[in-house]
Amino acid sequence: QVQLVESGGGLVQAGGSLRLSCAASGSIFGIRAMGWYRQAPGKMREMVAIITSGGITNYADFVKGRFTISRDNGKNTVFLQMNSLEPEDTAVYYCKLFGPDYWGQGTQVTVSS
């Protein structure tokens, strides 16, 4: 049994910043890749950023230069620092643990113009 608990979402004005956290607990059995995805109303869930067990990162084109994913392996926690937020970033953000896959419950991010 694995649990992923996200936090850090909220309402922010355009140009502002938020930092999301996702803590994994339970039967994780080693360091695994983790990632952030998002889903806006009426749209498909999309990848935002992924970080491997070794710290290699991959970002969606629409967040490059604005968002940074990082992790604390000792605490089984992944972070997403989001800067220069835009109204188009409004979505529910989900944390994902890979192999086998688990999802968090999601945290709402709303960016006002």
Description:
By secondary structure, the protein is mostly beta strands. It has no helices and eleven strands. The strands form two sheets. Strands 2, 4, 5, 6, 9, 10 and 11 form a seven-stranded mixed beta sheet that branches. A hairpin with a 5-residue loop joins strand 5 (46-51) and strand 6. The chain is globular.
Helix/strand order, N-terminal first: EEEEEEEEEEE
> Which whole number gives the mean pLDDT?
95
Q: What's the overall geometry?
A: globular
Number of helices: 0
Strand content: over 45%
Low-confidence stretches: none
**Range of helix content:** under 10%
Kindly provide the radius of gyration, computed on alpha-carbon positions and rounded to a whole number of angstroms: 13 Å
Distance between the termini: 40 Å
Largest sheet: 7 strands, mixed
The number of strands is: 11
Quickly give the structural class. Answer: mainly beta
Describe the structure concisely.
With 113 residues, the protein is mainly β. It has strands at residues 2-7, 10-13, 18-26, 34-39, 46-51, 57-59, 67-72, 77-82, 91-97, 102-103, 107-112. The model has no long low-confidence stretch (mean pLDDT 95).
What characteristics describe this protein?
single chain, 113 residues, four-stranded antiparallel β-sheet, seven-stranded mixed β-sheet, mainly beta
Fold topology:
Blueprint: E1 2-7, E2 10-13, E3 18-26, E4 34-39, E5 46-51, E6 57-59, E7 67-72, E8 77-82, E9 91-97, E10 102-103, E11 107-112
Parallel strand pairs: 2-11
Antiparallel strand pairs: 1-3, 3-8, 4-5, 4-9, 5-6, 7-8, 9-10, 9-11
